[in-house]
Amino acid sequence: MSELRVVLAEDSYLVREGTRQLLESTEEVTVVAAVGTADELLDAVERLRPDAVLTDIRMPPGHGTEGIRAAHAIRAGHPGVGVVVLSQHADEGYALELFRDGADGLAYLLKERIGDRAQLVHALAETCRGGSVVDPVLLDALVGRRRRDPSSALDELTGRELDVLREMAQGRSNAAIAARLYLSESSIEKHIGAIFGKLRLGDGPELHRRVAAVVTYLRAAGA
Amino acid sequence: MLPGAACAFAVLLSPAVLPDQAGRVLTAAALPFGFYAAGATARALRPGHPVADRLLAVGVLHLAGIAGAVAGARLPGGSWPAATVGWVSAVLFASGFVALLDLLARYPTGQYAWAWVAGPVRVAAVATAIVTTVAVLGSPRIVSVLELPTGPNPAHLAALASASGAFLVALAAPLLGLGLLLARYRGASVLDRGQMRWPIVTTAVLVAGLVSTGLAERVLGPEVQTALFVGAATAVPASFLIGLLRRTEEADRLAAVEESRARIAQVAVSERRRIERDLHDGAQQQLLALLARVELARARLGEGDEAVERELGAIGEAIGSVHRDLRELARGIHPAVLTDCGLVEAVRSALARLPLDTRLDVSPDVERSRFGEPVEAAAYFLVLEGVTNVLKHADTADAHVSITAAGGLLTVTVRDPGRGFADPREPRGGLTGLRDRLAAAGGVLEVTSRPGYGTTLRGVLPVAGHV
């Protein structure tokens, strides 16, 4: 696989440099630009057309949710560019805001995943392919929230199907899900078929349906 | 102001105009002089205040009535000019009582306590003019509000003779006003009540005096009655004037206190947010940079150095754990989600973190609304304190949180069906802090609890202009 061309946005110099070196050490990623603000990020994407973007959520000047706004702008202007948003916030509200208009090509990861370069690279590659990834900590909170909001289309799913959906939300392949849940791949396929059926996600390319399932999941959880 | 001054001047000339009746005129004018002086002072100190205008109006109308009576006494007895002046002065004098009614109905704020009061006041004004005219026409002699000797009434209508005593109806106006003032007093705030007490007493004395003039004169003699009347006359307008001045002063002071409290609340929230941001930009970022370096070192480590690799892995884990602790600490100081995503999202997020079976009800207009930092922070920490208390003390996993807005007020309720406690008014550490926090944002906290029947925390916060 050819190297992923990535633009990095992070306002703290130390974190930016650390992350850049870490990503480049994998030899799967080339950091084509490392910038400190959302405006510079949008500019770099415009100029360099990277495969994916790794951006902090909170940047100057507002120190709010600039990363999310930049992600929306990038996805709208350059649908082929995947965006991984790194955040210090373990609050589902931010993830829901990021996936407001759909989860395609977007990922929300907690910032401490900087300590796990394999996961960073996985998320970058996944979003570049149009997939989506959500940090497991957030997913657990979203499932907890789903229980409090009883009127959800997801109520029809069994516990096992929810497990599979949660794994799907992290962009895992059927084989990877099977391995993690100690199930056979064929039973994973059956579960996924049941999930698509219950969520009424008819026909269409498998990848799109997977993403749609994840979005439904997040929507329902956030409703 | 000017017509009043002219009338006052005319009244003061009465010893020259009517040497034998001067005492009577000046005694009758004592009360109007008092109102006129109080009104003029109030107008100067509180310009534009309706109560000041009404005080002045009572004085001017009565002085005009009295001046008219003095002038009428000098006109040829039984003539049409004398009759016309008598009628005008009677209507003006009676209207003074309606002005007094309006004053009582508007005191102390300047507005009616209830919007419907405007109707009866207007009816009283028209009715007084009509009744006075009828009484003037019914009187066989020309009417004088000072009961000065007059000639026969050229406009006398024998058919209305029985209505000649209808003047007394004008006295019902202040009585009605006193009733309205008393009714308002019942529902008034402590601040307003303080301003209303003295005027109520003096007005009651005055009304009693007006109604029982004849009786007092017979029992006490004309000199004592006159002395009492003049005393009351100075006390009534003075009590209104002082009440009015004190009221606006107290209101100004309270408004200043409210303002400074709101400022302090804003500063407190901003300060907490700054600390949160400093933690985020400082310690948390440093830890993350460290984490990246440890991971990089691990990546660069040659094969076969498993002990070092394990150690680096453990260091990375430890840094991650400290980072998580710091994140929770920052969140406790000021949750960024409150600033970035609003109250409801922050509450959802907080509830999702607790091992409680919480039901959350949010009214649709609150869902995406923003209410300003101090209010959002106070509401958020109320929910947090409430559910934490359920977790710690209530012995139940059930809790119900509701956030609603109506009529410019945001109401946040945390209810549990758990253990409850005996005396909700007894100060408790967490609740006292919460009460202060809500008060600083202009709100109030209500705690209701009973052993065996659970506990309810309810906070009400002003959010006018936001919903």
From TrEMBL, chain A:
Give every HTH luxR-type domain span: 150-215
State the UniProt keywords alphabetically. DNA-binding, Phosphoprotein, Transcription, Transcription regulation
Q: Which residues form the Response regulatory domain?
A: 5-126
* Pfam families given in the database record: GerE, Response_reg
The PTM 4-aspartylphosphate maps to: 56
Record carries keyword DNA-binding = yes
> What species was this sequence derived from?
Blastococcus jejuensis
* SMART domains in UniProt: HTH_LUXR, REC
Q: Does the keyword Transferase apply?
A: no
| Database matches in PANTHER family | TRANSCRIPTIONAL REGULATORY PROTEIN NARL-RELATED (PTHR43214:SF24), TWO-COMPONENT RESPONSE REGULATOR (PTHR43214)
Please identify the protein, giving its name as recorded.
Response regulator transcription factor
Q: State the Gene3D superfamilies in the record.
A: 3.40.50.2300
Automatic annotation (TrEMBL), chain B:
Which terms in the Gene Ontology molecular function aspect does this entry carry? kinase activity
Where does the sequence pass through the membrane? 29-46, 55-73, 85-105, 112-137, 157-183, 195-215, 227-245
- Enzyme Commission number, as recorded: 2.7.13.3
Read off the InterPro entries from this record: HATPase_C_sf, HATPase_dom, Sensor_HK_TwoCompSys, Sig_transdc_His_kin_sub3_dim/P
Q: Which residues form the Histidine kinase/HSP90-like ATPase domain?
A: 379-463
Question: CDD domains, per this entry?
Answer: HATPase_UhpB-NarQ-NarX-like
Broad enzyme group: transferase
Please give one Pfam family short name: HisKA_3
Residue ranges occupied by any Signal transduction histidine kinase subgroup 3 dimerisation and phosphoacceptor domain in the UniProt entry? 271-338
Family annotation (Gene3D superfamilies):
1.20.5.1930, Histidine kinase-like ATPase, C-terminal domain (3.30.565.10)
Annotated keywords: ATP-binding, Kinase, Membrane, Nucleotide-binding, Phosphoprotein, Transferase, Transmembrane, Transmembrane helix, Two-component regulatory system
Q: Which residues form the signal peptide?
A: none
Q: Which reaction does it catalyse?
A: ATP + protein L-histidine = ADP + protein N-phospho-L-histidine
Identify this protein by name: histidine kinase
In its UniProt entry, the species of origin is given as Blastococcus jejuensis
